[in-house]
Structure formats: C-alpha cells, structure tokens
Amino acid sequence: MKKKNLLAIGLALVLSLTLILSGCGNGSGSSDSSSSSKEDSSSSEALSGKITIGGSTALQPLAAQVAKEFMEKNPDVQIEVQGGGSGTGLSEVQAGNFDIGMSDVFAESKSNIDAKALKDYQVAVVGMTAAVNPKAGVKNLSKKDLQDVFTGKVKNWKEVGGKDQKITLVNRPDGSGTRATFDQFALDNKTPAEGITQDSTNTVKKIISETPGAIGYMALSYFTANDDSVVKLSIDGVDASEDNVASGKFPVWAYEHMYTKGEPSKLVKAFLDFMMSDAVQTKDVPAQGYLSVKDMKVQRDAEGKQTDK
What are the pLDDT digits (tens) for 144-178? Predict the structure, then answer.
C-alpha cells in the first residue's frame, strides 16, 4: 500500500514537471516568433506616397537627382521637384502646399515667414558668382568694379579692362535666394541697377550666353565642364572654386536649406535622411557642383556672419 502511494505521487510529480516545461517552451517560442515577425515587418516595410518639393532653383538640380535615386529605391514613392525661387519655397511650405521648401537663405531673413514654425535642414552649400558673356572680354573683376557694374556706374566693359561692349544686366527677382546671397556677399547690399529680370537660373544662363556684354549670376553648379557659353567670373583674383568656398576665401556662398513645416512625416523624414546619407553627401553633392556641409571649414549664421568651424 505504501509502495503504491509513493508510485502515484512520483507519477504526479513527473506529469506536473512535464506540463510546466511544456508551457515554458511554448511561451518562449511564441514570444520569439512574435518578435521576429515584428522585426521582419519593420525592416521590410515599404515606403509609399507623394512628396512635393519646390523653391530654390540653385538647389533644384541636386534635389531632382536625389529624388530620382530615392524613387528608384522606393518604387511606390512619387516625388515632384519644382523651382520658383527661395521666397516661393518658404511661403509655400509655410502654407502647407510644399512638403519641403528649398531656400538659399535662412527663413529668419524673410519678414513674412514664421521661422519658428519651420524646421531647417542644411543639406549642402552652394557657391555663386557672376556669369559673363564671353564677348565681354573679362574673366576677373575686383569687388569694387563688380559692384560698379551692377549698380550702373560702369556701363561699358572697356571701363574695367574688357572690350568696347555695352553692359547688359540680368538680375533675379526680389524673392530669389540667389539674388539675396549675391547682393549681400558680392555687392555688400548695394542696390543693383535696372536690367533684365528672370526667375529661372536656366533662363538667366541662356540670356547671358546669347547677349553680347551680358552679366548675371548663378550657382556654381550651373557652370558645367566643357561649356564655354558663359564665363565664370573670379573676384579679386580668387577663383570661384569649391576649395575656395570651403576655406572661406571666396565669399559668395550660402547654405542650401530644406525646410519642413514642423516635424516631417515619416516619408519626408526618410527622404531627408537619404539626402544627408554618406552616399549622397560624398557622391551626388559634389557631382552636382555643391559642397557637403561636412566639408566646410567655415560657417555662417542667419545674420551672415562667417566664422571658422
């Protein structure tokens, strides 16, 4: 009788232990499976939707190239990139019409923009200089002569060492970030004289190339290799090169900003992260004629003050 009781107790203990171990095993397996499924879902979750980007025509070529690459990696994403100028980029992103507003200037510089409502992403640096028709016969001007040309004090290229050719000014409109940058850092905020006014950098370049004696200004990214339709002007003997911009020797440059209205959506944030990725910053940014912010040895604040990094 005693032996039977002991046997029954032993069988009960074995059965209980088996059930406990089985329960633990199933719980662990279920947890791992759920975790694994969650990770796979997160890592493979596809991006989809539309992004509208607009504003600065100086930044437009880079934005278009990066958008193309992003869409190739994410086939369900559609990105529209348009120009219109920095003023348009800032006002339209503030109004909620653009997901990303491109600007060559800080939002703080525009009186009609609530900079505190916008989030600033400095995605690149752009150098700018004057573009001159080859028939003008000049490749370099002192800063003073350049200012005299744009303010109308000098009306013929022969007055500053060029050919006997009337000067035709090609300006950007007031809302242009390229104009704001050129006016501030090349003209020292002197008011340019009346001339032809065009909003598109491509149109400005075309007019200059087709008009003997014409001068305007544009981002360095628009001066392309093997294109001698316009002359890239040096200032005070300093070449408008990427190295000289990065070191601060050439003064006419600006950050290229991408602004969002408040925190960006998941899709827009993914695009901005891609824009700042090493692949884009080390390949696309220089290939398109811009400088990576990481390569700059100097920096500027919203008031235009330049200091060493």
Answer: 999 999 999 999 999 999 999 999 999 998 878 88
Closest CA to 298 of 250, 246, 251, 254: 246
Contact predicate 269/218, CB 8 Å: no
Break the chain into its structural domains and give their ranges: 49-125+254-304, 127-247
pTM of the model: 0.75
> Between 266-275 and 60-73, two packed helices, what is the crossing angle to 10 degrees?
110
Query: Is the separation of the CB atoms in 133 and 211 below 8 Å?
Result: yes
Hey, what are 94's tokens? 């503030």
For residue 114, CA distances in Å to 95, 101, 291 come to 11, 13, 28
The answer on pLDDT for 183 being more than 80 is: yes
User: Are the folds of 49-125+254-304 and 127-247 the same?
Assistant: yes
pLDDT in tens, 263-280: 999 999 999 999 999 999
Fold classification of 49-125+254-304 (topology level): D-Maltodextrin-Binding Protein; domain 2 (3.40.190)
Q: Are strands 253-261 and 118-132 parallel, antiparallel or unpaired?
A: antiparallel
> 127-247 has which fold?
D-Maltodextrin-Binding Protein; domain 2 (3.40.190)
- Mean pLDDT, rounded, of the chain: 87
Quote the CA–CA distance of 254 and 178 in Å, as a whole number. 9
Dist. CA 179–CA 176, nearest whole Å: 5
8 A C-beta contact, residue 151 and residue 171: no
Q: What is the pLDDT of residues 232-263, one digit of tens each?
A: 999 999 999 999 999 999 999 999 999 999 99
Considering only residues 36 and 208, tell me which one the structure prediction assigns the higher pLDDT: 208
Closest CA to 126 of 302, 300, 304, 292: 292
